[in-house]
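R.M. (postdoc): so does anyone remember the format we settled on? I'll just put the structure tokens first.
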């Protein structure tokens, strides 16, 4: 099966005129402007298969949102090529729109002056979808995202969290095969975030929907995506499965020990004690220097261990490590 998205050496450059000081500089700039070239996206290439859930991440200004805007047809690149469902997004935007759903966290696709109910009816007319199938999908999404109580409210009076839930419902109403999500959980509470993540993952598995998202919430990446593309200064620096990303960039484990004694001591190479509490100790294990089994054996040898928990480091630490490798502060 051919990939859903094919990107080849895609670039997006912006040109800005430098400001010249003084009256003479301003006049000279009118006739011979001095331009500065900024590369938002600088020659990226990748493919995404049907059903993949891919996170495109990076620090602010890395080119994530610009990439999504080119793939959805909103922006035209400076050079390079991209095919989405074998369509060129910026040239065949209308045909592509029937097959994709788009949510940009900072921009609304809803009609601010209309009640939510009417905003949800519009996609049926825009995408030529009517009848019981569309009605069932709409009611299912309304229930799933718990927006039934908002149906009579005017969109512009919704809180950010309420609006974001409605934005995602609107993007899914026409059953797109590909979903672009730019910061989809911004402003949402824990319950709403969980509902969105669960639905995206479940829908992708059941319907074969492809998902491409950007997010600064590491839980979105960890719980939704099976692959991560890291962009730094407009270029791809990492492209790996999420699990492999953990193993490569953080060869560490966190071991939490509970004991009746106030202090737990483990003196082994590659073992660092994190801030802990009485009767509870958290150790960071560098698995390149010492095996986890040896650490546990050492703890048990000391006696009095009531409980042991072994975990991977949080995803935000993985992302921080990647950014450090890319020499980019976060």
């Amino acid at each position: 099966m051919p990939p859903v998205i094919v990107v080849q050496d895609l670039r997006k450059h912006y040109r800005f005129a430098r400001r010249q000081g003084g009256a003479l500089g301003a006049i000279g700039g009118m006739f011979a402007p001095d331009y500065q070239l900024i590369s938002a996206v600088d020659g990226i290439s990748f493919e995404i298969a049907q059903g993949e859930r891919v996170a495109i991440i990076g620090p602010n200004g890395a080119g994530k949102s610009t990439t999504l805007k080119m793939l959805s047809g909103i922006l035209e690149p400076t050079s390079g090529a991209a095919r989405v469902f074998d369509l060129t997004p910026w040239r065949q935007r209308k045909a592509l729109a029937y097959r994709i759903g788009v949510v940009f966290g900072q921009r609304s696709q809803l009609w601010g002056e209309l009640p939510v109910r009417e905003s949800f009816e519009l996609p049926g007319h825009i995408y030529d979808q009517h009848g019981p199938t569309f009605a069932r999908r709409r009611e299912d999404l309304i229930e799933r995202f718990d927006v039934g109580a908002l149906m009579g409210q005017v969109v512009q009076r919704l809180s950010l969290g309420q609006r974001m839930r409605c934005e995602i419902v609107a993007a899914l109403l026409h059953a797109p095969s590909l979903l672009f999500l730019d910061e989809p959980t911004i402003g949402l509470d824990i319950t709403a975030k969980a509902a969105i993540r669960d639905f995206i993952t479940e829908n992708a598995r059941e319907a074969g929907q492809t998902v491409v998202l950007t997010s600064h919430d590491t839980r979105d990446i960890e719980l939704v995506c099976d692959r991560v593309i890291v962009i730094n200064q407009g270029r791809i620096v990492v492209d790996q499965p999420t699990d492999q990303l953990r193993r490569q960039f953080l060869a560490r484990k966190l071991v939490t020990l509970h004991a009746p004694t106030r202090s737990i001591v483990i003196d082994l190479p590659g073992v660092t004690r994190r801030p802990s509490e009485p009767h509870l100790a958290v150790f960071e294990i560098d698995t390149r220097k010492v095996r986890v089994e040896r650490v546990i054996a050492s703890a048990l040898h000391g006696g009095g261990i009531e409980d042991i928990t072994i975990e991977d480091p949080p995803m935000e630490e993985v992302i921080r490590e990647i950014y450090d490798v890319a020499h980019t502060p976060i």
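R.M.: ...and that's the designed sequence above, right after the tokens. Also worth knowing: Residues 190-207 form the longest helix (18 residues). The CA atoms of residues 203 and 209 lie 7 Å apart.
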